[in-house]
Design a protein that fits this description.
This protein is mainly alpha-helical. It has 2 domains: 3-105, no CATH class; 128-251, no CATH class. The chain is 53% helix and 7% strand. The chain has 10 helices and 5 strands, in the order H-H-H-E-H-E-E-H-H-H-E-E-H-H-H. Strand 2 (98-100) and strand 3 (103-105) form a beta hairpin. Helix 8 runs antiparallel to helix 9. The chain is globular and about 60 Å long.
């Protein structure tokens, strides 16, 4: 990481710690902790290929430890329960893990590095030319790249970090297109559908998510006959598209149209 990047990421995390400190109630505090964790995940996912990034992350951790001690020391516990497997798998073994309101504070210093497996030396996430090669190989146009960035930086307080992370991956794997219609989606048209609903025992894993148009999503879950007919008239699906919609409807516990 460059000195500028270290300073920038450190300030962002410090500011989020201050937000946690001044959270008004327990629910808001928990949401802000989750947002802090999502910021840590984002840094780790982006920089885990960088050389000697462990040293840089530990330098950030040193700064974060000081502000946590000064502002939240009465609330911080060393022992707590990790309710989400995603956090447990990545940070459960770290001795730097702390808890506030029984919510884990993921340690920025505990990064699991990964060796780059790109075929071309010039392909690299950390240079302008290298990123162009990545986008070229992924067949992303400027529109898709823009939406991909918007998804990656968005935050939904009622969604898990695993969901937000996998939503970006699924969008990228579909090249920004609806899984039913095949049309390219803009940011306000994107819905991420749980193939097996959470209410039926589904989870936020990559294989259980799919990107679809918001109208398709409504049609998959609709049970009212008038609503179903309204969206059928609006979407006008062909036989192949209707078969896909019905497949997802049945998996969601609804009858086929």
């Amino acid at each position: 990481m460059s000195d500028k990047a270290i300073k920038s990421e450190t300030e962002k995390l410090k500011n989020q710690i201050k937000v946690i400190e001044y959270s008004g109630d327990l629910r808001d505090k928990v949401l802000q902790i989750k947002r802090y964790n999502s910021m840590v995940f984002g840094i780790h996912n982006y920089y885990r290929y960088a050389t000697a990034v462990t040293i840089d992350c530990m330098a950030i951790q040193y700064q974060i430890n000081k502000i946590i001690y000064n502002r939240l020391k009465q609330q911080v516990k060393r022992i707590g329960t990790i309710g989400r497997k995603y956090i447990s798998d990545r940070y459960g073994k770290s001795k730097m893990l702390r808890f506030i309101c029984d919510e884990p504070i993921c340690p920025i210093g505990y990064i699991q590095t990964k060796n780059p497996m790109y075929k071309k030396i010039r392909i690299c996430k950390y240079t302008k030319e290298g990123r162009k090669e990545i986008h070229k190989n992924l067949k992303f146009d400027e529109h898709t790249i823009k939406v991909l960035h918007m998804l990656a930086t968005s935050y939904l307080p009622d969604k898990s970090v695993e969901y937000l992370d996998n939503r970006v991956s699924v969008y990228a794997s579909q090249y920004g297109k609806c899984a039913v219609t095949g049309n390219t989606l803009w940011i306000d048209e994107i819905h991420c559908h749980h193939i097996k609903p959470l209410s039926m025992g589904g989870d936020d894993k990559y294989k259980n998510l799919i990107i679809i148009h918001k109208d398709i999503h409504i049609l998959i879950h609709a049970t009212n006959k008038e609503t179903i007919q309204t969206y059928l008239n609006k979407i006008k699906p062909d036989r192949s598209q209707l078969d896909k919609i019905n497949k997802f409807r049945v998996l969601a516990g609804n009858t086929a149209i």
